C-alpha cells in the first residue's frame, strides 16, 4: 500500500483495509479521509470500521462519500474544510484514489491555478484534465 502525494498535505490511495491503518500511521500521516460510499462494493470495509481503526492508531478520520459523477458543491466544501482543519499530512482514499484527487483539486481550485492542479495530479498518476472547466 503506497499513497500518491498530491501536495504536501494530502496523499491518496485506492481503498485500504483497517489493518493497513497502522502502516498509514507509521508513515507519519495524522488523519484519514474516506471518499468512498459504504456498500459501493461487496466486502469493502465500512466507514465505521475505518474510523475505529484510525482512532485506534491515533489518527483523525473524516468520511466524505461521493460518487465519481456526483460531486456536489457541498462535497467540495466538506473536502476543503477537511484539508484546512484536519491535522496533516492527510491520507485520503476511495476505490481507486481518483475521487479523492478530484475532490482535492476542486477544493483547492479557488486559490490555485488549474494547470498546477492538473499537473500535480498527473505526477501522482491521475488524469484530471476533464475537470478543467470546473477548476
Account of the protein in words:
This protein is of the alpha/beta class and 135 residues long. The mean pLDDT is 94. It is 37% helix and 16% strand. A hairpin with a 2-residue loop joins strand 1 and strand 2 (10-14). It has one domain: Protein-Tyrosine Phosphatase, Chain A, CATH 3.90.190.10. Strands 1-2-5-3-4 form a five-stranded mixed sheet, sandwiched between helices.
Which strands sit side by side, in order, in the main sheet?
1-2-5-3-4
Number of helices: 5
| Protein structure class | alpha/beta
Order of helices and strands: EEHEHEHEHH
Instruction: Tell me the β content.
Output: 15-25%
Q: Can you count the beta strands? A: 5
Q: Could you describe the largest sheet, including whether it forms a barrel?
A: 5 strands, mixed
Q: Between the first and last Cα atoms, what is the distance in angstroms?
A: 29 Å
User: How big is the Rg?
Assistant: 14 Å
Overall pLDDT: 94
Q: Determine the fraction of residues in helical runs and give it as a percent range.
A: 25-40%
| Name given to the CATH architecture | Alpha-Beta Complex
Q: Please identify the top-level CATH class.
A: Alpha Beta
The low-pLDDT segments are: none
CATH topology: Protein-Tyrosine Phosphatase, Chain A
| CATH H-level superfamily | Protein tyrosine phosphatase superfamily
The tally of structural domains comes to 1
**3D shape:** globular
Which properties best describe this structure?
single chain; 135 residues; alpha/beta; Protein-Tyrosine Phosphatase, Chain A; five-stranded mixed sheet; 5 helices; 5 strands; globular
Amino acid at each position: 500500500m503506497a499513497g500518491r502525494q498530491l501536495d504536501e498535505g494530502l496523499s491518496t490511495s485506492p481503498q485500504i483495509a483497517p489493518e493497513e491503518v497502522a502502516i498509514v500511521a507509521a508513515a507519519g500521516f495524522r488523519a484519514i479521509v474516506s471518499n468512498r460510499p459504504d456498500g459501493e462494493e461487496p466486502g469493502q470495509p465500512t466507514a465505521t470500521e475505518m474510523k475505529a481503526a484510525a482512532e485506534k492508531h491515533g489518527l483523525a478520520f473524516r468520511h466524505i462519500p461521493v460518487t465519481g459523477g456526483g460531486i456536489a458543491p457541498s462535497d467540495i466544501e466538506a473536502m476543503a474544510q477537511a484539508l484546512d482543519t484536519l491535522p496533516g499530512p492527510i491520507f485520503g482514499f476511495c476505490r481507486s484514489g481518483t475521487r479523492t484527487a478530484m475532490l482535492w483539486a476542486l477544493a483547492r481550485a479557488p486559490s490555485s491555478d488549474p494547470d498546477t492542479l492538473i499537473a500535480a495530479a498527473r505526477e501522482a498518476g491521475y488524469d484530471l484534465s476533464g475537470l478543467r472547466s470546473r477548476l
